[in-house]
Automatic annotation (TrEMBL):
It is a multi-pass membrane protein. The chain crosses the membrane at residues 7-27, 39-60, 81-108, 120-138, 150-170, 190-214, 226-247, 259-281, 319-337, 349-372, 384-416. Keywords: Cell membrane, Membrane, Transmembrane, Transmembrane helix. PANTHER family: AMINO ACID TRANSPORTER-RELATED (PTHR42770), CADAVERINE_LYSINE ANTIPORTER (PTHR42770:SF5). It comes from Novilysobacter selenitireducens. Gene3D superfamilies: Amino acid/polyamine transporter I. It is found in: Cell membrane. The keyword Transmembrane applies. This is Amino acid permease. It holds the Pfam family AA_permease_2.
Length: 431
């Protein structure tokens, strides 16, 4: 049976869609505590994402059947490094799902007769969404993909209207007043916000992961990766400037639905409900899609001996049911552990942890390009892209707090120690 391949345009929008999710909808509230100067953080973050995207595009050329970190890390850096890259990416994906649930319910609660300012209401709603998407994922990958596609179409269209027609309500006075409300220097705010902002670019690697689905990987993967990142970056930068120039920073920081506030200012109170519904739908679809990714990543890790075998068990519909059950339970615990007085604080805490983990996994990609293998010796372009990726990862890690960095380091050390003691030493045969 011949599988229909996709071209560079569709692949580009796949990459962009995988990035434009909860970060787009809730980061304005998180960044409002710093100020509008974070627009420069978005510009720098986009540049760093392009460097990392270039590294993944290069890896896709070297490994056209690439499906997971193990495919490119183990040949270059060995099994231990591959375990760390695979497990860090897997952990970052399911912990990050909590941030998506925070954003989704932050908007959804506006449509319900509930007190959205009550932390227990927020955490209860987040857990309900987690288990709802767990149930959807049990039906298998195809229903999840259909559900996500529906959410993309109906979720982003109203927000696009806000971005197109909101500029007539832009107030330069509000924007200037919000320029830097942190009490720190502009440079300090720009650098210190890179970690939070990079959450919105997690998913940039998916261009490389779909290399087997495009017509011409050598041409289409770089176009899709760079194009997708540029589309996402432009959307983020424009929306950041627009939001900060319509609603005062303090109101944004206290809101669980910043885009709904902006819509109300532009079109009236009715628009806030429309945007809340659209944003909740898009974020919920993103949650379902990333739970699918988490289940599939865990299943592949189990097949390679990096996770217990239970994560690799699939039900009759092809879903990693037992692994998803464990993940949904762990996500419910994380929701309680990160409970905060307001949504933006909880969201910021979760994405701080996730970005550290995923950046460490991205660093393995850069190092793989620099080292190469006996069969694939690295050329000058490989080394330059690899070094660029490592520098980008170093800057992102340096921008985070010492506590977050130490926490990621400890988690990595514990995971590696457990793997050395209990991990399966040989990859199971494919037979």
């Amino acid at each position: 049976m011949t599988v229909r391949k996709i071209g560079p345009v569709l692949a580009t929008f796949v990459v962009a869609n995988n990035m434009i999710g909860s970060g787009f909808f809730l980061l304005p509230a998180t960044l409002a505590t710093a100020g509008a100067v974070t627009v420069f953080s978005w510009i720098v973050g986009t540049a760093l994402a392009l460097v990392l995207g270039g590294a993944f595009a290069r890896l896709a050329r070297e490994y056209p059947d690439l499906q997971s970190a193990d495919d490119y890390v183990r040949p270059s850096l060995g099994r231990d490094a591959s375990f760390l890259a695979t497990s860090l990416y897997w952990a970052s994906s399911w912990i990050g799902n909590n941030a998506i649930a925070v954003a989704a319910f932050g908007y959804l609660v506006m449509l319900l007769p509930l007190d959205g300012s009550n932390p227990m209401v927020q955490v209860g709603g987040q857990i309900a969404l987690i288990w709802l998407m767990f149930a959807v994922n049990l039906m298998g990958p195809k229903p999840v993909a259909k559900f996500q596609s529906l959410c993309v179409v109906f979720g982003l269209a109203p927000v696009a209207v806000v971005l197109l027609f909101g500029w007539g309500h832009f107030d330069r006075g509000i924007y200037d007043a919000a320029w830097n409300v942190s009490g720190q220097s502009d440079a300090g705010v720009v650098f210190g916000s890179l970690g939070a902002i990079f959450w919105a670019f997690v998913g940039l690697e998916t261009g490389a992961m779909i290399a087997g689905l495009v017509r011409d990987p050598d041409r289409d993967v770089p176009i899709a990766t760079v194009g997708g990142i540029l589309i996402a970056g432009v959307v983020y930068i424009l929306s950041s400037v627009l939001v900060m120039g319509i609603v005062p920073a303090q109101q944004l920081a206290e809101s669980s639905a910043p885009f709904a506030l902006v819509a109300a200012e532009i079109f009236g109170p009715w628009a806030a409900l429309a945007i809340a519904a659209a944003a909740a739908l898009k974020a919920t679809g993103t949650l379902g899609g990333w739970m699918l990714v988490t289940g599939e990543t865990g299943a592949r890790a189990a097949q390679h001996g990096y996770l217990p075998g239970v994560f690799g068990r699939l039900n009759a519909r092809g879903a990693a049911a037992w692994g998803l059950l464990i993940i949904a339970s762990a996500m419910s615990v994380i929701a309680f552990l990160t409970l905060s007085p307001n949504v933006s604080e909880q969201f910021g805490l979760i994405i701080g942890v996730v970005v550290n983990l995923v950046v460490l996994a991205y660093a393995a990609a850069g190092l793989s390009l620099v080292v190469g293998t006996k069969q694939r010796r690295p050329g000058m372009r490989d080394r330059l892209l690899g070094i660029g990726a490592l520098v980008a990862c170093g800057l992102l890690l340096a921008s985070t707090t010492l506590t977050m960095l130490l926490g990621a380091g400890v988690a990595m050390a514990i995971a590696w120690g457990l793997f050395r003691m209990f991990g399966r030493r040989q990859v199971p045969s494919a037979a």
